[in-house]
Amino acid sequence: MSDSSEGVDVDRWRTELEEKRAEKDDFFATHPQSPIPPDERDEFDGLSYFDPDPTYRVRATVDVPDDPEVVRMETTAGGEMRYLRVATLAFDLERPDADLADGPFELAAYRLESPNEQSLFVPFRDKTTGQQSYRGGRYMELSPDRDLEDGDEIVVDFNLAYTPFCAYSETFDCPLPPEENWLEAAIPAGERFE
């Protein structure tokens, strides 16, 4: 199930990932909407990332509820935001340093209560949280090309996991991953924050 390289040109995937990272570093360094405070941008020399690892690009099986449940997520500023839990993503991890796959794991995917919202928001914590990655957790955005149905498969690439803007500036208020999205595994992929 989680053969991450199945049907994927790993060299091309790695090149595209590195290009996305370079674009993001440029945005953080130069864009007026960067979360890096303006007086710190001259010293900014790029975000810290885990090395690209296709092991953490997995296929997840989708479970879609009949009636999406409202989930209230606490935020870094002490407020709360309302999301709809629109899917559960089940997956395994096959570690290069382990004989057996870890899992199964599940992550809930959410959408804002907005009729125009199509992307899936997947906030999570893992065993790197607060040590190698941001203490408030990390996020992923998934953009399926159609409405998901039970049993569909979707690629979840943890190499695209990113640190929320509130890690860089208190002017941002970010939702914290709910406990159902706390993974009992280390995911050394995506953005680091030490």
Overview of this structure, please?
The protein is mainly β and 194 residues long. The chain has one domain (10-181). The chain contains 1 helix and 7 strands; from the N terminus they run H-E-E-E-E-E-E-E. It has one helix at 10-30, and strands at residues 57-63, 69-74, 80-94, 101-112, 120-124, 138-142, 153-157. The strands form 2 sheets. Strands 1, 2, 3, 4 and 7 form a 5-stranded antiparallel β-sheet that branches. It has a two-stranded antiparallel ribbon with strand order 5-6. Strand 2 (69-74) and strand 3 (80-94) form a beta hairpin. The radius of gyration is 17 Å and the shape is globular. The two termini are 32 Å apart. The model has no long low-confidence stretch (mean pLDDT 92). Residues 21-46 are annotated as: Disordered. This is DUF1684 domain-containing protein.
